[in-house]
Amino acid sequence: MKEIIGREEENERKARENVDRYGHDAFFHYLVKKHDGIRLLLCQKMLPDKKIVSTTVENSELHGDYVDGKKYVLDILAKDDEGNFYNIEMQCYDIDKNEMIRFQLYGFRIVDHEARKGENYYEVKPIRQMIINTKDPLIGLNHYIHHFALYDTKNKVKMPYSLSEIYIIQLAYLNMEDIDIGVFDELMYLFKNDSAYGKIESDRMIQEAISMHDEYMSSEERLAAIIRERDEMTIRSRINFKLKQAEEQGMKNGMEKGMQQGIQQGIQQGIQQGKIDIVLIMLSKKLGALTDEMKNQIEKLSEEKIERILNSIFEIESWEDVKQLVKE
């Protein structure tokens, strides 16, 4: 019991430490939602050849997002004065294939959603997306800023009327000595280092961002983020512990069969059953008691579909979400 209490206290401490950083997605969301100038700065970075007059934060009907409500996902969907859309998020965990696909699909869904509202396709506006990656750079991406768009690689021309562009900002490669420093770079430096760049006088917007962090420290958003971060740490700890148990049990079962193949099969079976157990535990915590029918459906799922649920466990809000994840 003491070990469990100690682990929970440690998770609480780490959660507060993470959430209080300038480079945490909770503060980023708080800042960009409330500061019109910084939101405009980020959007303008994605449309450098045309001046944006103003931006507004949009309620995301796809995510159930609210501008001033308590339920939100930690990204910003903004629209400028000409109706162009911008989706901006900060990633505080290593970005994998799952995250990249999710990000792109979200952009496609926004375009599709707008297309369904209009009378013709001429009214559809493009979506520009930005990921600010605070962790390890993606494999093969070796620069501070990457800009992706549909492009003819042979003739070196951009596709006309393209509806999607993605910017990936990799803070690990930010080196203020190698660039012409602008306000955008100062802001990225603040996110990366938890302090302003000291070799020049900070721009007014950077000073305002620091002041807003002081406000954030006593906000409901911060408290909600600490709870969410702590709970995710606890869940991840339990998942790792359960998988370790499953592997050990699988090895034991395999060794009892007395064959190398049996050992490997036992390990794999043990890990798979461990993942199923984790899914059942996590779903019951999020959705309440599962019926026998629900449990049976989970038990019969393939390894790939169990992985889908595990990868999306923090986003699941209903049994309908589970059914959508495991559809063929």
Strand arrangement, largest sheet?
1-2-3-4-8-5
As a percent range, the share of strand residues is 5-15%
Average of per-residue pLDDT values? 83
Number of strands: 8
What order do the helices and strands come in, and which of them pair?
Layout: H1 2-19, H2 25-34, H3 36-45, E1 55-57, E2 75-80, E3 85-91, H4 97-117, E4 127-133, E5 145-149, E6 151-152, E7 157-158, E8 164-170, H5 183-193, H6 204-216, H7 220-257, H8 260-287, H9 292-299, H10 303-311, H11 319-325
Helix pairs in contact: 1-7, 7-8, 8-10
Task: Note down, in words, how this protein is organized.
The protein is built from eleven helices and eight strands. It is of the alpha/beta class. The protein folds into two domains: 21-216, no CATH class; 228-325, no CATH class. α1 (2-19) packs across α7 (220-257) and α8 packs across α10 (303-311). The protein is globular and about 65 Å long.
Short description:
The protein has eleven helices and eight strands. Strands 1-2-3-4-8-5 form a six-stranded mixed sheet, with helices on both faces. Strands 6-7 form a two-stranded antiparallel ribbon.
What are the salient characteristics of this protein?
single chain; 328 residues; alpha/beta; 2 domains; six-stranded mixed beta sheet; two-stranded antiparallel sheet; 8 strands; 53% helix; globular
